[in-house]
Amino acid sequence: MVDISEYSQMFRDKKFEEISIAERTLANGLEALRLQRDLDIINKYAQGPNFCDFPIGTGRIYPNFQDRFNVFGYDICGVYVDYARSKQPDFVENFQECCFEDPYDKVKMDTIVSLRVFNNIGDKKTAMKNIARILNNNGVWLLNIPPVLFNDATFHTNLKQAGFTIEDYYGYDWVSSWKQMNKLEARFRQVITKFADLKLLPYFLYKIIDHLMPRKGLIMVVARKTL
Ligand SMILES: C[S@@+](CC[C@H](N)C(=O)[O-])C[C@H]1O[C@@H](n2cnc3c(N)ncnc32)[C@H](O)[C@@H]1O
Question: Is 1 exposed, middle or buried (0-12, 13-18, 19+ CB in 10 A)?
Fold first, then answer.
């Protein structure tokens, strides 16, 4: 048995009925813009032939790469994997229930994308080594993490020891830093959310605002397997 965090256990034990709740929280204008921003960055670095969305969650990311790559999707949550398989009946083997602590290792990847998760992984050092193990040499791992983790020296030491070199990183996703916002920022975030929901906020404008806001909610790390 591998040791996993409480956060991971909560997802592992999810019931099928909970998928629709998770999907509903993502079905709004602001989330659509955030997804576009994630995809924009991923698109700059994604390489094939094998692309793995790890973890897939409800399937925000992987469908956007199926026209170009052999797409794989892994997650600790069995019902998310079943859900993806039900949507991809010809590729069920590409979707596997597994975790960072013990990943499916029968296929080597050229790109692995890990969004909105890594900060909550218990044993990050082991997870990094495992990601390196299922990546081809010169493969790329894109992960987004809060600035506080990016500013932690141990994160960089572990990444290096696992065989990665940071090729690039982007501070972005101001809207997700809501816990740190002052009243004015929080009010502005509400306005942004409203405009996004009304589809009155074009992506280019959202991107400019996100760029100009000094506070960053996430750092997208582009790590290349170099060892
Ligand atoms: C907030 S969701 C993000 C899903 C997806 N990456 C996205 O950006 O939409 C977090 C995901 O991490 C998965 N997860 C949590 N702990 C994990 C672990 N130890 N190994 C693999 N997946 C894990 C959960 O099942 C869930 O699907």
Answer: exposed
